[in-house]
Amino acid sequence: MWQSNRVFKWWGDGVSVIWCRLYRPGEVVLAMADEELAGKEFEEGDFRLSVGLFYQGELVDEERAKQLLKDATIINAVGKRAVGLLIEAGLIKERFVKTVQGVPHAQAVLRYL
Fold first, then answer.
1. Each residue of 16-72: pLDDT tens digit?
2. Which of 38, 6, 32 is nearest to 20 (CA)?
3. What is the 3-state secondary structure (H, E, C) of 60-92?
4. What is the pLDDT of residue 57?
5. Helices 62-71 and 80-88, interaxial angle, to 10°?
6. Which domains does the chain have, with CATH numbers?
7. What is d(CA 34, CA 97) in angstroms, rounded to the nearest whole number?
8. Rounded to whole angstroms, how far apart are CA atoms 105 and 86?
């Protein structure tokens, strides 16, 4: 059963905002998306990417966002800034990023509880 216990939104460069939401359904799932992508859908070939309420939450600073990444066992990220944070943290490699209509998307399973 999926239960959201906390929600977050990450400030990148002081202007850019990334929505983040932390779930604890047994695993620690972190959903992240660039703010301007909220509520949008993207399709390319057989791929469909929907950036819905699953991603939306509160604001945290970059350091807190990095702490959330450390606790996550599963991460779902959409957008240049959100995916860039995963790459910068060394949690994924750029070659594993899928792009749908120019929007980067990445998923990472880091460990099981």
1. 567 788 888 778 899 988 888 989 999 999 999 999 989 887 666 667 777 788 889
2. 32
3. ECHHHHHHHHHHCCEEEEECHHHHHHHHHCCCC
4. 79
5. 70
6. 4-109 (3.30.1860.10)
7. 15
8. 11
Whether residue 105 contacts residue 99, with contact meaning beta carbons closer than 8 Å, is answered with yes
Distance between CA atoms of residues 108 and 74, nearest Å: 6
Residue 83: burial class (beta carbons within 10 Å; 0-12, 13-18, 19+): buried
Alpha-carbon distance of 91 to 101, in angstroms, equals 23
Going from the C-alpha of 7 to that of each of 43, 98, 109, the distances in angstroms are 27, 25, 20
Would you state the structure tokens that stand for residue 82, as one six-digit string? 């959100």
- Provide DSSP, the chain: ---EEEEEEEESSSS-EEEEEEE-SSS-EEEEEEGGGTT-EEEETTEEEE--GGG----B-HHHHHHHHHH-SEEEEESHHHHHHHHHTTSS-GGG-EEETTEEEEEEE----
Query: In the structure encoding, which two tokens stand for residue 14, read together?
Result: 């002081």
